[in-house]
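*** Backbone structure tokens ***
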Amino acid sequence: MNTKTYTKTRFSANDTALVLIDHQSGIMQLVHDYSPAEFRNNVIALAKLGRVFNLPTVLTTSLGQGPNGPFIPEVVSMFPDVPVIDRPGIISAWDDPKFVAAIEKTGRKNLIMAGVTVDVCLAFAAMQAAEAGYNVYGVVDASGANEITIRENAVARMRDHGITPINWTTVAAELQRNWTLPTGQDLGRVFHDHYHSYGLLMDSFESVSTNAVTKAS
């Protein structure tokens, strides 16, 4: 029987760290279950949540000076004080002591994790993190795959190891909880720019509200 409750597994900005693994310009070309634009959009949106909610953030690359390419610049520029941990050919980030040390340094036990490939970059590190006692939430729409069967198998495997699959918009809502909190305005901008259907809703409402004010005056 699953003894976990939502109250026990609910995370907040005060107890959570963001971990982004190998979102590199070369490896991102291996993702085909999302279009390049959609996938990049999701990764950047997730990274922006780290900035909006001031989450301790860990970035890592594998052979960033080689064919895998550098971490995409939009993300790196958001965290100028966060060093990108480059692994010398180590496939699972959790096998790199520097990476594990960076996780431990955050002091957080809840990890929001995404990896450029859901079946390797995310799954391997996430499963090892869960075994090490962390509560891991795998952001599956910021983690890609060559095709849908690979995604489904990877998500099933991670579930078996205690990882909770989640998407970036759910992460946002879980962290915000109440739109009246100070982060609401900044999160609204993230939703407008990256959750495109929600952005249209916001534009429509703003237009109606502006017209109503104009007529009233």
Notes: The radius of gyration is 18 Å.
